[in-house]
Amino acid sequence: MQGLKSSQLKQLQRLYHQRLPGDRFTTPEFAQRLAAISTDLSQPICVYLNRRGQVIRVGVGSPRKTQIPPLELPRYGAERLCGIRCIATQLKQEPPSTSDLTAMAMQRLDSLVMVSLSGQGFERRGGGATGYVREVYLAHLVPHPEARWTVSDSLTLEEVARQDFVELTEALEEEFRRVFVAQQVDTDHDRVLVVGLLTGHLPKDQFQYSLMEVERLVETAGGEVLETLYQRRDRPHPQTVLGAGKVQEIALSAQTLGASLVVFDRDLSPAQVRNLEMQMGVRVVDRTEVILDIFAQRARTGAGKLQVELAQLEYQLPRLTGRGQAMSRLGGGIGTRGPGETKLETERRAIQRRISRLQREVNQLQAHRDRLRQRRQRTDIPSIAVVGYTNAGKSTLLNSLTNSEIYAADQLFATLDPTTRRLSVLDAEAQEQKQLVLTDTVGFIRDLPESLMDAFRATLEEVTEADALLHVVDLSHPAWQNQIRSVMTILGEMPITPGPILLAFNKLDQVDSEALTLAKEEFPNAVFVSARSRLGLETLRHRLVELASYALCQ
What we know:
alpha/beta, six-stranded mixed β-sheet
């Protein structure tokens, strides 16, 4: 709008008083008027109309630059259009560009009428009003992902004016309803797009494994992954993580596929989430929030629910939108007098009080677990904590070793609360039964969120206070070496250095000979077992006795 004359601004403002027939895309007179204003400005203009033919928005620029923000558009669902059409002018004589058509798709416009200017003044030729308009193109969406839109051949103003807008729109929406009803899924499940960012320092195969892990997390949380997209950049964009073009592509995919959620493979700042949601028009969450959601579903005991709630509140507190400390009106002084506390400030203070109370309860839980450990230690029974990457088969292995019935499933974070079982092993040399205590712990994962580490410190102390560790590895996973490094990194960040570690490669029955040979060469002292097929368990029992004896001698 800068640089426009007052007379030009008045011409644009008068467009709001225009009203077109509800059953027509446009009229020749209205299109010629837009073309005249656009010729005078030497810039394209866009006019947005509702289905009653009323002008609701006028913008100077292309459809891409003047598009309506997603949060301001009506939300009718994937089976309907938004009820708004756009009549735009362009200085070039060519069909609408891909960026203009993408803007139409992102907004789910009823149609886009693109008027190409002739670059001349108004004049009559052969009895027809050619004037400012050279040619017109008509574009609209189609309910097929392979062809998201269709664009007509070059038309005259009279040909466009004769077409029935209502008939076309109703036919399109009927087709959208038919297609999307056929694809309809349970409304309790989120339809998800997984998005990743590949930076220069990360190898391509590791990045692919991390995206696969995010997909598994989404499925474990109860979502349905529709598509996985990624972009390669040297560094994340500070405002939107990805580039503007990629954000637009994701928004278009979300509209086309009917996605209700976009999940990123990395942590997002509160500002990045807000920017992405504003541009995409759908809810955006990061990897940490998905993990927290899984933990909330898995928590069964009071202790588990307590720790999950604490982790969720610590995650949510900095993500409350507002002016932060500057909002406070409790300190007194200039600028603090007025209406009192805002609702946001009240909520933030309530969350802070809740976090303080939960932290006290976690401390009490910590003390309770410490008393249980001291009671076990007084019996002189060695304790071994079973650790490992999530879904490595820790619970299944513990069930097989101790003939227990701990819940186990082929899911990420299937077991959340620690479980302790006693194991009796016959020591052939001493000709006596040796007693061990095995404790199943929460599974680890790459880049374990700090809020979880803090909230689950009472549970993770089972690892640091144990006499030794049994590190279970899923040898059938293609990234098992990266998983070992991730677990060792987390163990290295513990406040107390854990005891000696025995490496146990699980799922031996699902491994090819090449992976098995590589693991034996790299870890010659490891044990190879199959918890489900009960292979190698006797060897593992005796190695656990040796491990416990070694730990007690340290």
